[in-house]
Amino acid sequence: MSAVDSLLITSGERFDFVLNADQMASSFWIRFRGNMDWNSKNVFQTAILRYENSPDVEPDEIVTYESTSRNGTVLNPINHAPGDQKHVTVAELKALQEESEADWAREPDHKFFLAYDFNAVDNWLYHDPEHYPLFGVGIHQRFFTPQVNHISLRMPSSPPLSQHHALSVNSLCNQSTVANCKEKECACAYTLQVPLGSLVEVILIDEGMTFDATHPFNLHGYSFRVVAMERIGSNVTVDQIRAMDDSG
C-alpha cells in the first residue's frame, strides 16, 4: 500500500483506493483533469466531497484547469521509472494478499515475446499505398499503426471459438505464419495456441521507437500474475530483452 496525493488513470484502467478523510468537516472539490491529448484543451471536471452533517453548499474556491493540478506524490505517472520519491509507478505496487509461488514459480511451458509499437506502415484503414501512403501526406495526417510483432489487428470473419470452421483464410496468424511484415502491413487476429492447462510466460515489450505512448495491457479469460515490470530505456528492442532473459 502506498500513500499518494493524486493518481493518474489512462485508458481502460481502474483503481481501488482509500481516501484519508482527516480534515475539518466541510465540503471539498474532487478534481479531475485531462492529460496528453486533452492538455491543450484544458479539459477538467469536478465533483463535491461533503463530510456528514456539513452544510449543503459548494466549496468557496472557483476551480480552473490550472488549479486541478495537485502537488505531492503521484501514482501511475506517465513515463517515469521506479525510484523517484515523488512518483510511484505501478511496478512498485505490491498485492496485499500473500500467495503461494508453487503454481507459477516453475519454468513456464511456453514463453512468448510480444513487442508493441506504433509502426510506420501503409495500413489498410488509413493509408492506401497508391493514393495516400503514410509518407505521402502531411505529418499531421499520418497515422502510425499500433501493432504486436509488426502485425495489425483485423477481426476474424467468424468467432474463432464457436465457428472456427467458418473462418476465412488467413483470419488467424502469428509471427511464424506471416513474413515481410516490416515492409508491408500484415493484419489478422494474432493467435498463439498452447495446450490446455499450460503455464505461459508472456513478455510484453514496449519498443517505444515512434513516440512515448501510455496505454495499459490487460488479459481476459485467464488467471495471470504480473511477475516483473521494469523500464529499460526510452526505447528497446526484442533482441535486447531476449539477451537479458537468456542471461537470467
UniProtKB/TrEMBL annotation:
Keywords: Copper, Metal-binding, Oxidoreductase. Pfam families: Cu-oxidase (PF00394), Cu-oxidase_2 (PF07731). The keyword Metal-binding applies. It comes from the Eukaryota. Residues 4-54, 177-231 form the Plastocyanin-like domain. SUPFAM superfamilies: Cupredoxins. The keyword Oxidoreductase applies. One of its GO terms (molecular function) is oxidoreductase activity. PANTHER family: FI03373P-RELATED (PTHR11709:SF394), MULTI-COPPER OXIDASE (PTHR11709). This is Plastocyanin-like domain-containing protein. It comes from Daphnia pulex.
